[in-house]
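Hello, quick one for you while I still have it in my head. A protein chain has come my way and I'm curious about its shape. I'm sending you its amino acid sequence along with the backbone structure tokens. I'd be grateful if you could look everything over and explain what you see. Here's the protein in full, and shout if anything looks odd to you:
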Amino acid sequence: MKCVAYGETHPGYMRSNNEDTFLWVPDTNLAVVADGMAGHRFGELASSIATNTIQRFYSSGELDQLLSGQFARAKRAGMEPRQLSYEQFKLRRAMEEANLAIFNTARRNPQYETMGTTIVGLAAGEKSVFVAHVGDSRIYRFRKGTLEQVTKDHSLFNEYVRMGLVRAEDADTFPLKNVVVRAMGLQEQVVVDTAMKSVRKGDEFLLCSDGLSDYVPGPEIERAMAGNETPEAQVKALLTLALQAGGPDNVTALVIRLEDE
């Protein structure tokens, strides 16, 4: 399928710098949004290292050959799940390399200690999209007027929901809802969640930082997606909603629409 995409980022009204970074590579149908973590020094450096590392990872044909061999050996040895696709494996490995690049940069430069970022990534194929994420940045699928969250936040709030300590509808009143339990760059290794989603013509995928999802409710995101015809118009409408909510955080949105060739 052909992909049409548009992304935009804004620092918001309360932050002096923008720690969000996004990436769209049409040649490989690769999209990434990284949100440098507030409260951690040099979050903007962490997010840019992440996106740059992933872009280089996908642009190397020689690395792709080595990776495909590694994947085949791992599957034969039973080290990877039988249902795992090569595309999921590649996206996960790209994120693991990005995590290591951030971690090693901080290890060599003590002033960068504790820098980190959340991240979401998507690679579109002919009949499926492959997604991966760490942290609380999100991917949504918009299909025939309905918005569905594809990723599950790696947040303290979601952990409490999973343990039955709070209800999902208590998010707005939970005092620590922005605390993440998993992020890129803070440790030498990171667990990356991946998934494969089947696609239909006209499907759209929204990648965003929590500067959007924390301040614009799902029904409003859905209406903005339905009420605008192009990815560019949708992104601009979403950023406007986040800024109208006060713009307290950096905000980034990237929309990919799948069309016939």
